[in-house]
Request: fold
Amino acid sequence: MSGQLYRLLDRFVTERIEPAVYRARSPLAISAWHAPDEPVPFAEAISNEFVPCATGTAWGKPWGTSWFHLTGTIPAQWADQPGTRTEVLVDLGFTTSQPGFQAEGTVYTSDGVIVKAVEPRNDYVPVHGAPGEEIEFYVEASSNPSFDADWISPNPMGDKATAGTEPLYVLRAMDVALLDPAVTELNQEVWTLAGLMRELPDSLPRRAEILRACEDMLDVLDPDDVAGTATAGRQQLAAVLGSPAYASAHRVHAVGHGHIDSAWLWPTRETARKCARTFSNVLDLMDSDPNLTFACSSAQQYAWVQQHYPELFERAKARVAEGRFITADLLRDRPEGIPEPPVWSGEMYLEYHRSTYTSQHRTKAGNRRSEHLLLERPDDSASLTGTDGGTATVSLRPFQICTLRFHR
Reply:
C-alpha cells in the first residue's frame, strides 16, 4: 500500500503542486550584448549597444560573457492576488541534473548593484515593486562549458584556444512571475517529509505517522485548486513536521558553506565571479531568514570580492560584524575590514583533490611553513634552510600564499 501511495504522492507533486507554485508568468522584453573576449565591469558593459533578442536564441561561446537587459511591467491585474509576491525567473538554458558546472548569471539593478545570482536550481530574482510598476535588470551571463561527470580527461572545452566559438546554450525564459508562497512552502514540506519517510525503516512508528499525514494532505487538497487549498494541506502536515526526533537522536547544527574551488575547471577570473554569485545569494537569503549563518574561510576569495565587487564586500562585512557571515580560519593577511578569527586551520587540495593528509605531504608541509613564516615575519621576508644546509632569503607574498590554499 505504501508503494502505491508513494507513486500517487510523486504524481500529485509533479502534476499539481509544482505547476501551482507560480500562479502566472509574463515574458519580459530582452536585449543583449555579447562581450568580444574577457569579462568587463558593469559600467562598461551597459555602455555598449544592446540588440533585441528572444527566448529560443542560441547564445554563449565557451568561456564567453553575454549581458542581457530585461525590462517590463508587473501586470496590473496581479493586484487582485493577495498573499503572493513577484519574482523574475531566468533560465539561461540550464540543466537541473547538477547544480553548477554550466551557465551561471549575476543579476544587477539598473544602477549596478548586485541582486543575486541565477543558476540551475536557483533561478529566481526577488522584485520589490507593486503591480503596474516597471522593472529593469541586467544579467551578466557566463557561458561556462559543462563537463558532465568527466572532470579528469583532457577536453578541448577546457581552453578558449581549442573550445571553438559555437554557442553552448539556448535562452529558455526571462519572465516576471507571480509566486504563491503557501504552495511553495507546501511543496518544500512534502519534499522534506517524503525524503525522510523513504529513509526511515518500515518498523518505525514515525514512518507510518508521516505516511498517514501525507495521505490526509492529499484528501484535503483540491487538484483543481491547489492554491486555494494549500493552507489546509499544510495543516495536515504540521504535526509531523513539528514532531521532535527521538530522545536518542543527535542534535545537528547546520552552517551554510559555498564549496568554491579557487582553481579547478575554470580560469581564476571566473572564480572571482563565482565568489560574487555565491556571496550575493547568501546575502539575499540572510535578508529573508534571520537565522541563516554562512561560513567562508578563504582570504583570497574575500580579496577578490573586495577588489572587483566593493559594494558587495561591504554588505558581507556588515553580516560578518553580526556574526552570521563567518570567516572561519582566515590568515592574518585578511582583507581590510574582515575581523581576525581566533584560530586558523583547514585542508588544502590541488586541482585533482589529492593534496590532503599524506598524499601530498611535502606540498602541504611547505604550505603550512609558508603560513607560519607569513605570521612571524612582518617585513614579508624570511631566511630558509634547505635540505643541503644552504640558506636563502625569500620574499613572502601573502595573497600568493592564500591563493595556493585554494580549496576551501
Summary: Confidence is low (pLDDT under 50) at residues 331-335, 339-358. The longest helix spans residues 268-288. The two ends are 46 Å apart (CA to CA). The chain has eleven helices and 17 strands.
